[in-house]
């Protein structure tokens, strides 16, 4: 297996590996190391089904299972279907484009480690792929923060709330989402995470706050907290930190939630079909030093 950096602010391309087959320890170690360095890795021209996607993804940690079971693969509940396709007038998958910048699962006590997507159908227009996914590099964003802000916010705790994201989606024109029920709110209470987080693979500091879920900084007047978060959100989304992945059928894209933000471009029409299979991986193992050390000890061994 080879993993070559894109030369951009982030991103790498993997080749000479079949992800439908079990990974060697060396290949797994190289992928973990590359996620820490590059944030996003694309493995083109893969051929996976739901079972092999699950097998690859669960090497990195526990897999999220939808509570509702909606839009999951019928044989593999850990595999979500993302799609704009309808059959008999009903959507077959969850529409994931147009959700603005966020980090999946930052609203949970055990945050997300990686997202793994396999492209089954990619829309095109005039020969160009649509529905790109755009990423932002939170290591680079942290490095460029003013030193006085790094010092002042060194031990700051940020509260993340799923309801913030939900309400933002409800406010969109044409949305039919109801408010979260008290029962749903109870299942997704606000959670606390460090504003500056030490990345478990690289040991480097990253900015762990995103516009989708980060609600306020603990212990601050709300107006002051809002002012700081507004600055951080604008800072982290500068073009110089962004990397765009244009999809092709057969791509497997894996990205690190801890050190990146992402958004999907909603530039395709309902008749321009897009379908992805997705696994969400918890950060339930990557923060264990022994897990990281074991993975990195095999990196470069092939």
TrEMBL record:
Q: Please report the stretch or stretches of sequence annotated as the TauD/TfdA-like domain.
A: 4-279
**Tell me, what's a Pfam family for it?**
TauD
Which key words are in the record? Dioxygenase, Iron, Metal-binding, Oxidoreductase
Q: What is this protein called?
A: Taurine dioxygenase
GO MF term (any one): 2-oxoglutarate-dependent dioxygenase activity
Record-stated family:
Belongs to the TfdA dioxygenase family.
Species, as recorded: Pseudooceanicola nanhaiensis
Give the Gene3D superfamilies listed for this entry.
Clavaminate synthase-like
Q: SUPFAM superfamilies from the entry? A: Clavaminate synthase-like
